Model the fold of this input.
Amino acid sequence: MLARKNRSALFNEQYFTNKFWDIILLLYSHEINDLPIDSSAIAKQLEMSRTSVLRYLTALVNDDIVCAYDLKEEDCFDLARDNLSLTRRGFENAGIIVEQTRKIFSTIPAI
Done:
């Protein structure tokens, strides 16, 4: 499937096998709607422990997928307390995958 190959080129394949993708989609949705969200709200919405969310977020920050929502690049941010956002790369790549998925489902004939 071409969409699966394309997504592997945009994100680490491991992101699609666990809660990484849920977090990315939640951040993507909040960013599109210009709504800030922090790690506590992510944990609550995804029904996960905050400790687990912070582990996932740390990996996403290290992979340049997540950053601070409203701080300048040179500012330090507290992953546990500050509002979060996708980096430009994270946002654009998530958007590509969402659009590819939308195309797949829009071509399925109605029952």
In short: Residues 70 and 83 are 7 Å apart (CA to CA). The mean pLDDT is 84.
